[in-house]
Amino acid sequence: MSGWGEYGAAWACFLGAHMIPALPGPRGWLIGRLGRRGYLAAFSLLSIGLLYWLILAAGRAPHVPLWDQPGWSRWLVNVAMPAAVLVAALARGMSGLVAAFALWAGAHLVANGDLSHAILFGGMLAFALSGLLRSGLPKAFRVTWRRLVLAVLAWAALLHLHPLVIGVSPLPA
């Protein structure tokens, strides 16, 4: 499977993996079997794997240009990403992670001007914003040296591994 078919399948799996556990029955059953930490670990690994597949599938879908990618758009992403990582690392609760995904998706939406990536980042932005409507913006932050160092290391890893893992350098030309 390739092209739009793979992309559609990746979206279906990603959305299914996030909607099915949101139902009280499956989530309770999974937590009962795996424990709360086991469930969160399994759900996190599954989510990361499916997100990675979705990103790769977007890149393999037929290229349909929608808008030119302005030169400043990579700068936007390179300013937004450290902020997103900081919010995710310092905020208490899931609202920080959801806000970070909204920043990530919004910045990448501007910087990627083809149909498959507009669907990817526009869809992720809508998904994140709906989560923020339910949970609200982060209300409390845990600012510690350890969290700050982890945030900087996570951002540096994302920046330097992006060409290897995603196939495109995030740095402006």
TrEMBL record:
<protein>
    <submittedName>
        <fullName>NnrU family protein</fullName>
    </submittedName>
</protein>
<feature type="transmembrane region" description="Helical">
    <location>
        <begin position="117"/>
        <end position="136"/>
    </location>
</feature>
<keyword id="KW-1133">Transmembrane helix</keyword>
<feature type="transmembrane region" description="Helical">
    <location>
        <begin position="79"/>
        <end position="105"/>
    </location>
</feature>
<keyword id="KW-0472">Membrane</keyword>
<feature type="domain" description="NnrU">
    <location>
        <begin position="10"/>
        <end position="170"/>
    </location>
</feature>
<keyword id="KW-0812">Transmembrane</keyword>
<dbReference type="InterPro" id="IPR009915">
    <property type="entry name" value="NnrU_dom"/>
</dbReference>
<feature type="transmembrane region" description="Helical">
    <location>
        <begin position="38"/>
        <end position="58"/>
    </location>
</feature>
<feature type="transmembrane region" description="Helical">
    <location>
        <begin position="148"/>
        <end position="168"/>
    </location>
</feature>
<dbReference type="Pfam" id="PF07298">
    <property type="entry name" value="NnrU"/>
</dbReference>
